[in-house]
Amino acid sequence: MAKKKVYFSPPRGMRDMLPYDHSFASFIKRVIRYRCRQSGIRRITTPIFEKPIILQNLPQAHWGERALITYPNGENNDLLLRNNFLLGVMRSYITHKMHTEPQPVELYALDLCFHTETKVVQGVSQNYLHQFLGFDIEIIGEDDPALDAQILKLWKTICEDAGIGVALHIRLSKIGDIESRTQFIADLQQYYSGKERSLCDRCRENLHTKPLALLSCEEEDCKILAKLAPKIDQYLSSDVKKFYLHLEEYLEALGVDFEWQENLFPEDISVFQPLYGEIYLDKKKIGYTGHYSRLLAEEGFDGLSGRSLFINLEDVIEFMQDQKVLVPFKDNIHVYIAQLGPEAKKKGLSLLYALREQGIKAIGSMGKGSMQEQVDMAYKFKIPYCLLLGRMEVQENTILIRDMKTGKRETVPFAKVIDKLLQKIPAAELDKVKKEDIEKEFRD
Predict the structure, then answer these.
(1) Is 363 within 8 Å of 380 (Cβ atoms)?
(2) Coil vs helix vs strand at 444
(3) Whole-number mean pLDDT of the chain?
(4) Is a pLDDT exceeding 90 seen at residue 313?
């Protein structure tokens, strides 16, 4: 009986991040850490799971429908697998009484997130988890639109540092507050009442559940009706209008380009007020921003006010790769040690680690391959220098340095090889670990 074929691939929706990908991920994460630290925004890490009870105080419960999984946590409860950081950061803000700290509290998160994707396989809809690297900024504790402008300015600066600033597009939407939206939605449904025959099947379904979705339908008849529908601008209070006016002024002062887009509403419409926006690189949506007021409010608690910026860094990395953005690549090897014989292997091993201590990135094959096979490996990895250590070199206490680009060979005393290589390799390329570097990484 034939064996069943085994497919060695990651689970659907998951992916391996290979060394090439990590060079981009490490670069963008370093830029993010630097700019957030410079802006006084502190890093927070919350669990990837949250208790679903937090959803009871949210306006819309479908936050959990996409990411609720059964997990044996000892309490016989399901847990919520995060698809962004908003819930976790707000829960942490309340748990640790951050409201007692000077306001606003400015935090950022940088970690894995998950969301579900629905795909039709052989006529059957199936849900799959999709894993991705997310970046989030939460500024909680004040309603000032200047803070909304600041996080958009920060993301613009990060994009410029990463070499993709020209591709950044910010689309903002005036979605009003809950009071103005309530009357707007009621009038919108009244407007469409009696026009159901002119709507597509999806819009007929959305009319009583997601009426705002009708305004962005691309079907021709639906687009004509949407143009004549009530506009939310007609329902905005004077305070909300002042919010937009001040936001425009702050963004202009900070040099942040944006455009107002009509009928752009978030899926979680009841979470954000009075602002929502989407972030693009060229035509690819990579994230969103939103302002919220009195979120999680209940008796005796006024709720949380602030703003959120969430970015899918996987999309950013993919865009950088497609655009062939040059990023610092720290994995280039300087030296390959080729050796032959037991005594050469012992000397080669000690030299390998001595080179690394001086910041010279070195590798070597300490197996049984021939000298030529080892030199061929240096060619394969495009390593600039190869050190040849055979029986004769061991006897004479020398070593041969070969320039792999020119083919030039140079025999030097074994004790002088490190000094010789330090003359050939630019100091800026050395990867020597210093105490201050470790402390700096710890602060990051």
Answers:
(1) no
(2) coil
(3) 87
(4) yes
Nearest residue to 195 via CA among 183, 184, 207: 207
Task: Output DSSP code: residue 229.
Answer: S
In this predicted model, what pLDDT tens digit does every residue of 152-181 receive, in sequence order?
Answer: 999 999 999 999 999 999 999 999 998 889
Q: One-letter amino acid identity for 395?
A: Q
Q: At CA 73, angle to CA 69 and CA 74, rounded to 5?
A: 140
In this structure, what token pair is assigned to residue 187? 């009038």
C-beta separation of 294 from 305 below 8 A: yes
The architecture in CATH of the region 19-177+237-322 reads 2-Layer Sandwich (3.30)
Distance CA 89, CA 321 (A): 31
Query: Which amino acid appears at position 367 of this protein?
Result: G
> HEC string of 186-209?
HHHHHHHCCCHHHCCHHHHHHCCC
pLDDT tens digits for range 227-268: 999 999 999 999 999 999 999 999 999 999 999 999 999 887
Residues 181-220: b if buried by 16+ CB within 10 A, e if exposed: beebbeebeeebeebeeebeeebbebbeeebbbbbebebe
Amino acid at 130: H
C-alpha span between 98 and 92 (Å, rounded): 8
- The CATH topology of domain 335-435 is Rossmann fold (3.40.50)
What type of residue sits at position 394? V
What is Dmax (Cα atoms) for the chain?
98
HSE (CB half, 13 Å, CA atoms) of 381? 21
Three-state DSSP class for residue 394 = helix
Cis-peptide into 274, omega within 30 deg: yes
**Angle ∠(117,119,120) on CA atoms, nearest 5:** 160
Provide the residue ranges of all domains of the chain, joining segments of one domain with +: 19-177+237-322, 179-234, 335-435
Secondary structure class of 438 (helix, strand, coil): helix
Structure tokens at 75: 């309490």
Q: Could you give the count of Cα atoms lying within 13 Å of 20 in the half-sphere of its Cβ? A: 6
The first and second tokens of residue 161, run together, are 């540092």
